[in-house]
Please model this.
Amino acid sequence: MPGDVVLEVKDLHTYFFNRRGITKAVDGVSFTLREGETLGIVGESGCGKTMTARSLLRIIPRPAARIVSGEVILDGENLVTMSDEEMRQVRGSKIAMIFQDPQTSLNPVFTIGNQVIEALGTHEGGRNRNLFDRAVDALRSVRVAAPERRMHDFPHQMSGGMKQRVLGAIAIGSAPRVIIADEPTTALDATIQLQYLRLLKDIQEETGMAIIFITHDFGIVARMCDSVAVMYAGRVVERGDVRQLFNDPGHPYTQALMASVPQMERTDRLFAIDGQPPALYAIGNQVIEALGTHEGGRNRNLFDRAVDALRSVRVAAPERRMHDFPHQMSGGMKQRVLGAIAIGSAPRVIIADEPTTALDATIQLQYLRLLKDIQEETGMAIIFITHDFGIVARMCDSVAVMYAGRVVERGDVRQLFNDPGHPYTQALMASVPQMERTDRLFAIDGQPPALYALPDGCRFADRCGHARDICHQEYPQPGEAAEGHVAHCWMLHKVWQDAVPVTAEAG
Ligand code: SF4
Model:
């Protein structure tokens, strides 16, 4: 049974400000949450539910977005008026969020253990010296088998369900009073989804934490929640006890949503309602908004410019697609729209951060070709951030290899791939069976150092088969492997000839 009130949200308003006006993403949201209670926030994409959650944690995209009024009272304290530093203490330790997508929420270059330890360490301000044990406990609490061993795994070595558990461990590890789970099971298949939901319920029973579920899925709400708030266009249009509201929805929007779910026990997706919400989130609006922000309203005919931008990324019938919502488009098409938003104002440099991870192989290839074509037409420069050496080989002129926060090698892509100078790059290259394949990397023994405990010397030294004393003592100067090809490794310097092998000293 839910207990005392732990969270009270009063008339919360979060607005986005841009040159074209104000977008009221959260427009007067109020609700209360008790200990041990699970509240579902439901509604279509763009209704403001995720922005409500982000406002509670104060992780909205500033300065474009601002909480303009309202209160978020957690255990008697108003989070809206806290300083950033106070909020950092609260975030994660008293109120935490489980994000949608484990693929992007976990950092692929750090072990699971490092990531859980880092999260616990941040929240606990280093109070608890035995963070390793605490991290193992957190993994155990989300039913990760053999947690000591899994601490050393990297995200790509885990299944989707297991990664989602790790995100749960990160959120739950500091025993927060409130967990916000934003579509936490979207990426999981149905059986794993069910397991994960049961697990959250069990942990809730053990700890008494309150949960806010953000979801499109009325099946999840029926299974998991005590109460529900239905959002539409930035507002809560109806809220109440979950059974009561499902049996007798009062608002026409809730009635329409309910009618679009064939059976309450099933987990079919929604969005079968005709027409569109009035929110400013149609594809066209989003492209226009991006163009308008960049162009300072110079160009009065933004609609035509947005259509052109969609056409430039080969969206068929762009005038018609302007009125579509993201959920009406395939993954590949959505990726193109993101491309149109980025490319629409003809920037000089585009940064593409793993832009094709969510796409299947053929669509990925199409999209990469498209970017290359646009680059040839416009002359823009591209920075590709990727794990995938196949993409680098296909797309890039030059490459910079990063390790533990630093570029350890850079140069012309063919030269560097043919003759890598840094042992880390060599190990990476050796772990790619063929350059044309897109297997994930990082099968090298050991782990990168934690970024909060970096050594003075070479950051790769603990994993490097060539390491000598000097490697542990001093960070390597850049050395020239070939013309225009630089690696940070002592082996490329004259000093290497005199360096003492570690084994010689040990012996
Ligand atoms: S500097 Fe030493 S430890 Fe670092 S990569 Fe080069 S040989 Fe290995």
